[in-house]
Write a structure and sequence with these properties.
This protein is of the alpha+beta class and about 200 residues long. The chain is built from four helices and seven strands, in the order H-H-E-E-E-H-H-E-E-E-E.
Length: about 200
């Protein structure tokens, strides 16, 4: 009679384990799925990963794409600007050196006759024919010259154009001293005509 009572609990325990097996399997599967979901990379939900700009989308600027600077022509001297340059002088007036003063669009008319500039009135009349402040530039150059004792200062418009005289010839004429400019053999082009004034001092006759 003791034998049936001892086997009954064992059969009851087996049924209990078989009933709990599906529940444990479900819990283990759910835990496994939750762990897999936690291990997914953050980039799947990171908005910055999808919105970050790509380096290939922005064009790279190379030196060849930079616009090259186009050389521009140098503008002519402004009105009234002056340049002074000593030049050799020849002729029978006894003058060996003169000064050429030039400026762009300074006005005046070319003339071979030299004007005596030994008084304030003569200097003012000679400077008044020029445009802008070129007349003052001419007078400043005249004041800068050292006139020897017994010599008389003169001025003349030697040339109006693009070529500066390389030298001058000063001869004694019937009406006074005459100035002939020696222009270069090879001419140049310019934007606007230049006025070239020659200043010199000649011995008193």
């Amino acid at each position: 009679m003791t034998s049936p009572q001892s086997t009954s609990p064992r059969r009851s325990g087996a049924r209990t384990r078989s009933a709990l097996a599906p529940v444990l399997a479900s819990l283990l599967l759910g835990a496994a799925l939750t762990g897999c979901a936690d291990e997914e990379p953050d980039t799947a939900t990171d908005p910055q990963g999808s919105s970050s700009p790509s380096t290939s989308s922005s064009p790279e600027v190379t030196p060849s794409e930079t616009p090259s600077e186009t050389p521009t022509e140098e503008p002519p001297p402004s009105e009234g600007s002056g340049m002074a340059q000593p030049v050799p002088a020849t002729g029978d007036a006894g003058v060996t050196e003169a000064t050429i003063v030039g400026a762009t669009e300074a006005g005046g008319s070319e003339s071979t006759l030299a004007f005596v500039l030994d008084s304030d009135l003569a200097r003012s009349d000679f400077a008044a024919q020029f445009e802008g402040d070129f007349g003052e530039t001419v007078l400043d150059q005249l004041d800068a010259q050292q006139v020897a004792a017994g010599a008389i200062p003169y001025g003349a418009i030697a040339a109006v154009g693009c070529d500066a005289p390389e030298s001058v010839r000063i001869d004694a004429g019937e009406a006074g001293l005459e100035v002939t400019p020696q222009l270069p053999a090879k001419t140049v082009e310019c934007f606007a005509p230049m006025t070239f004034v020659v200043l010199f001092a000649a011995p008193e006759a």
